[in-house]
Amino acid sequence: MVNLLEALNLPHIDEDLARVEGALRRAVTAEDPFLTEVAGHLVHAGGKRLRPALVLATALTAVPHVTDDVVQGGVSVELVHLGSLYHDDVMDEAEVRRGVQSVNARWGNLVAILAGDFLLARASEIAAGLGTEVAALLAATIGRLCEGQIGELQTAYNVERTEEAYLQAIAGKTAMLMSTACRVGALVAQLPRPEVEALTSLGRSFGMVFQIVDDILDIVETEEVLGKPSGHDMVEGVYTLPVIRALALATSGGDLRALLGRPLDAPEREKARAIVRASGGVEAAAGVARRFADEAVAHGRGVDGAETLGELGHRLIDSLPVEAS
Amino acid sequence: MVNLLEALNLPHIDEDLARVEGALRRAVTAEDPFLTEVAGHLVHAGGKRLRPALVLATALTAVPHVTDDVVQGGVSVELVHLGSLYHDDVMDEAEVRRGVQSVNARWGNLVAILAGDFLLARASEIAAGLGTEVAALLAATIGRLCEGQIGELQTAYNVERTEEAYLQAIAGKTAMLMSTACRVGALVAQLPRPEVEALTSLGRSFGMVFQIVDDILDIVETEEVLGKPSGHDMVEGVYTLPVIRALALATSGGDLRALLGRPLDAPEREKARAIVRASGGVEAAAGVARRFADEAVAHGRGVDGAETLGELGHRLIDSLPVEAS
Fold this sequence. Notes:
Shape of chain A: globular
Largest interface: A-B, 46 and 46 residues
CATH topology of the largest domain in chain A: Farnesyl Diphosphate Synthase
CATH class of the largest domain in chain A: Mainly Alpha
Mean pLDDT of chain A: 93
Number of helices of chain A: 17
Number of domains of chain A: 2
Strand content of chain A: under 5%
CATH superfamily of the largest domain in chain A: Farnesyl Diphosphate Synthase
Largest sheet of chain A: 2 strands, antiparallel
Oligomer: homodimer
């Protein structure tokens, strides 16, 4: 996998992200020491902080240095991401997240739900400090995340899941927050409206690439490379783009359809992954991702200094061990 | 129980709350029809809408008619309440809420968590439309709700739970949102700052009364009167003020302590309730509630037209079937 933070090619990214990190740790401090511990659990577990980096990168197309408001914008976006992970892990009954025990596994579902609510509330509170537009945007983003997740739940184990339903679900659960990260950076840096809109669209297109690539990796990479079980989506009944494409192909569709539609054990999962890999579905999915990456480039052309940011989707696709078809 | 909406003595309360109701239903409409159904489930189940009524009542101390912004303030506060109920019911594994099947019982925990997130996000989005101060306040309120709930979880089944820990937990889980309801009404109606602060404090004091009275009713009333199982708090290990007071008394403390500290079956629950009722703990708790009700009156004196609102806590206590000591 390409290092996206390096690919952004921002001169002071380490220092700027260190400021985000400090502000993030302060933001999750509650009056109650136990809530502080739980709310800080995933923050302390680390993470790439890609979304704050997008806030920084968009803001830096307009301003020479990262201001405190830009840092707070990055914090609010990352808190939405973290809060949603707390609730995701409850829903998935996940045991491990980012190499540490998940919050639900360690303290139970009740605490994980409340701590997730707390992080989302802190995100909204910080966003309110950046003005009503950012506050409304963050709240709408959380709403869209929920819609995307609900869409995914509704089509679980459904071998008739359409490409349209898939794209709509990932637009809500992933691309919206990437888009919001770029929009927050642009708004806080007070870019003119056309640039704000272009960067918002760029973020959305990049977010689509990001999720499709993630879904491809779940099929083609080993557990060692991913750092988490591969083929997990199929086991959970989440049929992603490579799977949807493989199901639609005459050569692979029948065998795959016979396997899917229910939870899989490990040998079934490996068989299903092998069918999808051999089908051409992965390459077709990469082709769809490339179209979104092309869109991102086009949006980036509308903003001075956003060329590198616009190329980010292509960098991701280039790092895949498969060719787009 | 006294009818608090009547006790507020607002001339057009029915018409004004009907406007809140319409706006509430529009607010929970999502793009996805399934999410719309789930998010609207508890809205359609009805409810007294006490918190929106507090928003209306505080605003009407300053303005002659309820504006659309006041209505939206009421909607945002009620959405916080509803969203927190969705998550509460997941945590309590509740089967029934407001006479209908709970969301978690009907659609599962995953859907209930997401729909609760969605309602909280809609609350924040609407609050953002009322300005950054209201937006920040709503977000901080959600954070305090979480802190109050976490505080309650931490002291579950702890017979050494202190009165201070109890008061702090109910300040977060109940009084903060009542206080916020009053503050939102005052802010949206653009009252001067001293009146905003007085009404905020009035709401907090009333909220404390409201929760203590609720906790007393759980001990003294029958399931038929409550419309839900009585003694439920003790069964769940939530030791409220009447219980804490009974535990502290030499005459009742020993027997009660021997029963508590673990889940109770129905006969044990009735035995524990009888001990608390006979102990004087209920009357002592009502006495604490009366002190908060007196505070509310004092805060109400600082604002023209807030006298009736200030008396609301006393009206609640007067309706109890016990005397305060």
